[in-house]
Amino acid sequence: MSEISFDQMSEQDAALELERLAKLIAYHDERYHGKDQPEISDADYDALKRRNEAIEKLYPQLIRADSPSRKIGSVPAAGFTQVTHARAMLSLDNAFSDEDVGDFVGSVYRFLGRLPDNSIAFTAEPKIDGLSLSLRYEGRKLVTAATRGDGTTGENVTANILTIKEIPQTLPASAPDIVEVRGEVYMAKSDFLALNEQMAAEGKQTYVNPRNTAAGSLRQLDPKVTASRKLRFFAYACGEMSVMPAQTQSGMVTLFQEWGFCTNPLTKRLTSIEAIIAHYNHIGLERAQLDYDIDGVVYKVDDLKLQERLGFRSRSPRWAIAHKFPAEQATTILRGIDIQVGRTGVLTPVARLTPITVGGVVVTNATLHNEDYIKGIGQKGEPLREGRDIRIGDTVIVQRAGDVIPQIVDVVLSERPSDSVPFEFEHQCPVCKSHAVREEGEAAWRCTGGLICEAQAVERIRHFVSRNAFDIEGLGEKQVEFFFHAEDKNLKIRTPADIFTLEKRQSQSLLKKLEHIEGFGAVSVKKLYAAINERREIALSRFLFGLGIRHVGEVSAKRIARGYGSYQAFAESVKAAQAPREGVKGDKGNEAWQELTNIEGIGQIVAEAIVEFYHEPHNIEVLDALLAEVTPLDEAAPVASGSPVEGKVIVFTGSLEKMSRDEAKAMADRYGAKVAGSVSKKTDLVVAGPGAGSKLAKAQELGIEVIDEDAWFVLVGEA
Ligand code: IVH
Prior knowledge:
This protein has 719 residues and is an alpha+beta fold.
């Protein structure tokens, strides 16, 4: 269709043209996001949007309710139901060097206590760069297939999985009644290339890499589309099983094969660190020849009983690790450096780059960490990159490793423009203009704007709604920005409580405004409200993490939640807590302070940050408003009730002989007990090994029950 030029355009023409563009852009949005099959190039799409905006500028009175310029982000893929995993799907810790692998193997031996060298076997297999999937069979029939999602709940993609030939839909009679097979869905490199060739031949946009294509193919609402893409599957782990049909990881993999699954042929069972590293190197050499992308090698403790003893940290198992291949690098030009403000005020320099493909992914931004990093100074003052600084205009080496944020690792000095100047890091917040400070021992400059800094406030809300905190779907980065800066006071979200009052602040007319202006559409507005209302009751740990208290990460939040059990108990105690006075010898703070720091992993720094947070009147105001809307749920102990030590506070002291200190803690955790670092009136039980000293004496003085390691095993029923 020929396009009318602007100067010939009457108001009527303009109205018609805006209508045409709105429809056309909506159509291409749907092709791109909804169907994963764009028809026009990104550049052509951008040109349409620019034309729309230019006309809107000339005739602001004609801006349509459904204008493409008013849309935020893409519509989330609707239509998949959620599946709660019977057993969480966790991620893996990473090792980047042989030394890290040695540390991992060492930690397994240490955790399990005294075992002779080379007595623990490990499996080593490629880490497939795909998407993890959990397949659930009941009565030997495939009943659900779910993506990993956030690890606890994923998307139900069963209809799509049924189209994958490599996945058996029934299991042989010998398989247990309930079986969960976990593994990786991926697209072979050859199938990916063929698909792209076909797309190009049809004049369609090609795909970026096999992983994203596999992801897009799996998340199709129409299983016919999934069926038309060749997806494959490697089985490598199990989830829930009604009976364990094997004793070892390698035995399990053999069974998977017998049941008809593909398993990776490069899987090996090995016992020494040297053999493990040799296999890693071997797989590294094979890597380019393989018909699928891999990004490392996964090592797992072979014995499933030992796996169980080793258990999990918050997000990953202690019995496995991913040994990553070295990162991929590319060179490009550094166009500019922006300063980003984090929720605690940290100023992070971000590199804006001429777009470049690094290992199959287009990179436009990379982190520059902090001021010293740009200057070529390391954390301990040592020179980085032999002291080379990084300047705007430089040719830089960008590195991307796995899912981590890309970084600039070096500059090519020979390419440096002759007129370049060193970068000057302004010691001022780019948003609220407050001055920045750099605390001793810290690399970061921090905006001192605190509660007045809008950038920090936005980041705090983004953190609050993020996946591992309140996890409110529909409040992404753009939506948070929109609500934060909304002019209408009934649309504004300035503090967490505002999120929960949004719905009741809406008059019908405002609701209409939101539906249209925001491009949310009536359905999405309803969905957003539903997502918000679902979080009016929330796990205490998520609540605490969401507050964004400095130094309180997910792990500390969990520990605090377990330690206090209820929000009331926590808040009252923390408000009463007094830290030890500086310079006063022997001052240990008051009892509430002791209670806080007795929690495993909560040291002086974290405790101080928490107490400080609760001493700031504004924070209390914000919290009270939030608590009027939201109820943090008491944290239940994770173990089945009836454990004899459930809810008890236990101190381990002296040397332990049958288990390591870490295993003791993990065991207590498993049985619902709390482990404390020091003995106080609150201690219920002390487990003392040989050589116990002052803690034992204190326990005796306070009349607390003391048992030895053997009695501990008897007590928890593991003797
Ligand atoms: S084992 C409890 N084995 O890597 C951990 N994971 O970074 C069970 N992955 O989410 C995972 N290849 O999607 C395992 N051979 C392999 C793997 C593998 C790829 C993925 C998986 C997992 C992620 C963790």
